[in-house]
Every structure is written in structure tokens, then in C-alpha cells.
């Protein structure tokens, strides 16, 4: 059972380990490396575990016609889609610079490899783990080659069926034990009705030996926090410095105050999940001492009387007496002392109370 593994040096995920929070910078940096650095620092300051980008080798991700098609959207950075994407793409040298900056700041740094050549570059860059974007989740040659490299993998599942995700699991598992799958719906921004957090539980049943997480594109933080309460071990959210900036991802991204709120809420929920063992806790003892109820005498009960239910009631009593859950154990037992009406029935005045009956 894998269930937990090291996603980055010294940072385990799964099991009882803290949820791993990925701040997806993507291409929200506007093609400006200084903005990218500010976003890395912002992710660290807000409490995220990892700053993540998207790396493409454009001629390997798109064919020529896709790169040459006109792109006249208000979000465009060029006349063609290729010009637009080239504006947003950092060079290998710039990636090294960003990686070094992330090390200085003290946050994990990685990227989604958007094509096989990008994965090769990220492997050479020695990123801690590979992120597989939803667009490549059903790209089985890509998955197999990526899995064989032996680095941990985080795999989103937007636009996929459960049948496809079973194939994904089987394909990766043959070559790599250390991976997790994220529930994801590829819409920007994402409406609550299309989130389908219940898929997390289905993934947990289908793939019980790997951690399950959530990649969200909804507005706000509440749904992502709910995912953690349902057992998500990795949370990925797009981040931005300004939602009004050019780019289709900004609207579905979290600004710094929201990312801070998300991380704080996740850590609070993790604390609140606690243990599955139900018992009275030390913090409850003052309330129990003040308001906890006891069995009391409805009538005066002379010494030697055999107790019956019509003699017994339940009240907040002083001193504490037999707890209400044991009231039926008292029936048929005799009292060893007189008990006045409305007095607590304490364990020491009931014959054989709490003793095991010898056969």
C-alpha cells in the first residue's frame, strides 16, 4: 500500500501528512519574469508548498496550423495563436533562473510538461515531481514515457471518464508507484454544480493505494476546503496578482488574500479532522463536571431495597452519581444504604454495580 510518498525532498504526502498545496502560476505571469518571481514569493508568503508553471515546447505541443491561426481574442498577446503563446513562454535559461529564485525563497518549484519534449527539459531541470495537466491525461504514450522517468507524478483528470482514469492508473502503476490523481473539471471559472467532489470518494475506492487530491477552478476557497475535509491530500489552485489582468485563467484564480485564506482554512480543517476514535476528551471534562447528568432517586429508597425503574430518574446531580447510560444495570440490584428522595445514586451504594457477574 503506497498511500503516502515523498512528493518533494523531505515532504511526504498522503496518510496523516499535511495537504500539499500547489499554487498554479501557470502563465498568469504575463510573460514577465519579474512578475513570475513576485508570484513565486507570493505563493511562499501565503503558505503554499509549491509554485508551479506550465512549460511547452510549442512546435511539439501544436501543429503548424494551430500556431498560425489568427487569435483576435481580447486575451491575446499576438496576432496568431503562436505569437500569443511565444509571448507567454519562458526560455530554458529563464526557467533555471526561476528555479534558483524558488530555492532562495524556500518553496518547491515545478511545472506541467505540456508535451514530451517539455517533460525531457523538466527532467533535466531536476524538478521534484511532474505535473500532468488534464489535456495529457489520456495521452498514453506521454504518460508511459513520463512514468518511466521515475519522478513522482501528480495527474489531473479534467475531461476524462472513470474508464479512462482506470487505464491511466494501470499505465502509470506499471512503471511508477509514486503518483496521485486529482479530481478536476476543466472549466474556467467552474460552477459549483460541475465540481463533483463526490468523485474524490469514488477515486478513493477505485485507487485505494494512492493519494487522491483536487485541482479546482472555481471562485473562492470554500469548495477546495471541502475537498480537504473529504480526504484530498493535494490541492492545486490557479493564482494571480490581479484578476483583471489579460488572460483567461485570471478570473478563476486566487489573489494573495484568498490563497492565504485557503491555506489557513486547510490547516484548520486538518486539525479539526482529528481522530476517528469517539470518546470523552479532556477538553469536555469541565462541561461534564458542570452539566453531566446522573441517576437520582425519584423516591426515598431504604437500605436493602431492590431497585426498579420507577424509583430512578436522571438529573444534573451533586455529587456525581451513576451515569445515565448505566441506569438499566441498576435495576434488580439492592442499595446498601438509605438514599433520600432526589439524591444522587452513587456507585458505592449499589450492590455489585460495575462488577462482572461470575458464571
UniProtKB/TrEMBL annotation:
Its EC number is 2.5.1.57. The keyword Secreted applies. It catalyses: aldehydo-N-acetyl-D-mannosamine 6-phosphate + phosphoenolpyruvate + H2O = N-acetylneuraminate 9-phosphate + phosphate. It is found in: Secreted. One of its GO terms (molecular function) is N-acylneuraminate-9-phosphate synthase activity. Residues 294-353 form the AFP-like domain. InterPro entries: AFP_Neu5c_C_sf (IPR036732), Aldolase_TIM (IPR013785), Antifreeze_III (IPR006013), PseI-like (IPR051690), PseI/NeuA/B-like_N (IPR013132), SAF (IPR013974), SAF_AFP_Neu5Ac (IPR006190), SAF_PseI/NeuA/NeuB (IPR057736). GO terms for biological process: carbohydrate biosynthetic process; carbohydrate derivative biosynthetic process; N-acetylneuraminate metabolic process. Keywords: Antifreeze protein, Secreted, Transferase. The keyword Transferase applies. One of its GO terms (cellular component) is extracellular region. SMART domains: SAF. It comes from the Eukaryota. Belongs to the type-III AFP family. Contributes to protect fish blood from freezing at subzero sea water temperatures. Lowers the blood freezing point. Binds to nascent ice crystals and prevents further growth. PANTHER family: N-ACETYLNEURAMINATE SYNTHASE, SIALIC ACID SYNTHASE. This is N-acetylneuraminate-9-phosphate synthase. The lineage of its organism: Eukaryota, Metazoa, Chordata, Craniata, Vertebrata. The gene is NANS.
